[in-house]
Design goal:
By secondary structure, this protein is of the alpha/beta class. The chain contains ten helices and twelve strands. The relative contact order is 0.14.
């Protein structure tokens, strides 16, 4: 168990996941949280990361920093996604180990699992067949981080764990028009269509893929729970165990935003993976379950979007 005054470093505290972890730690009464902005510490620079860890010597690390994006961003910048994520995570995990960090938690993504994995996807299906091509670079980087934690545990007896969340949404999400994930992108698109009085909104694909969504504050709650209650080489899936089609999702977002026009589908655009549902029985056995239902979460996310200065960026 982490002591309430233990020195805890949250890498990526300005991102959606990192900021939620900081909120959750504060809510639970942890008082010694350290953070660094990208300007203060570039995690891709090995020397800078080594100096930071040697000086601060955090006892616990939540590694939530990452270069992320949706289908388009992943396809357009394959090399960047692989390099930045791999270098960043290796620097942090290695420096944590070198400086005697008690426990580290690495945050990955459900895109690590094979394209045609059994559904729902158990943790054990990792590396059993080929990855989805549209986010292969990001997935390979995340698998490397997860495996490096496992190998340190096996070689040096560390207590490093990893968590693989499903699609996330919530406060501090990225609402960029081309570099955001599906749910924030839909929130923005329907809001702008409503404001502009548009009769139709066109969405990618045919709306058939099935997806699962987890509110980011629920993930943060699980992250702290696992740091205190789980040790093991295998990752832990983070999700709701519930899915809906992209078509149902767009209708739900339109309803929350208050857009009443018509939704059309551009079938020349890719759908991505046909189905992505996590098997969340492992987290359930450990005693954890999600709290925020999707419609309630989308309302909270829309509220955040309306107050988010990022949405002004084109």
């Amino acid at each position: 168990m982490m002591e309430k005054n233990a020195k805890i470093y949250v890498a990526g505290h300005r991102g959606m996941v990192g900021s939620a972890i900081v909120r959750e730690l504060e809510r639970q009464g942890y008082t010694n949280i350290i953070t660094r902005t990208h300007k203060e510490l570039d995690l891709c620079r090995q020397e800078a990361v080594e100096a930071f860890f040697a000086q601060e010597k955090p006892e616990y690390v939540f590694l939530a920093a990452a270069k992320v994006g949706g289908i388009m961003a992943n396809q357009d910048a394959l090399a960047d996604f692989m390099y930045d994520n791999m270098i960043l995570e290796m620097n942090v995990i290695h420096s944590a180990w070198q400086n005697g960090c008690k426990k580290l938690e690495f945050l990955g993504s459900s895109c690590i699992y094979p394209r045609m994995a059994p559904q729902p996807m158990p943790e054990s299906c990792l590396l059993t067949s080929e990855l989805e091509k549209t986010n292969e670079a990001y997935a390979l980087a995340k698998i490397s981080g997860l495996k490096y934690c496992e190998f340190l545990n096996r070689q040096y007896g560390t207590d490093y764990i990893s968590v693989m969340p499903t699609n996330l949404y919530g406060p501090n999400d990225n609402y960029h028009p081309t570099h955001s994930h599906v749910l924030p992108a839909l929130i923005r698109r329907f809001h702008e269509a409503k404001e502009a009085g548009l009769d139709t909104v066109t969405c990618w694909g045919d709306g058939s893929p099935l997806r699962e969504f987890l509110y980011v504050d629920d993930l943060a709650n699980l992250c702290v729970f696992l740091m205190n209650n789980y040790s093991g080489n295998e990752t832990v899936n983070a999700g709701t165990g519930k899915e809906l089609s992209i078509k149902e999702l767009t209708e739900l977002v339109a309803k929350v935003v208050g857009y009443t026009g018509k939704i059309q589908w551009d079938t020349s655009k890719p759908n991505g993976t046909p189905r992505k549902l996590l098997d969340v029985s492992k987290a359930a056995k450990l005693g954890w379950t999600y709290k925020t239902e999707l419609e309630d979460g989308i309302r909270l996310a829309y509220e955040d979007f309306l107050n988010n200065p990022m949405r002004a960026e084109r």
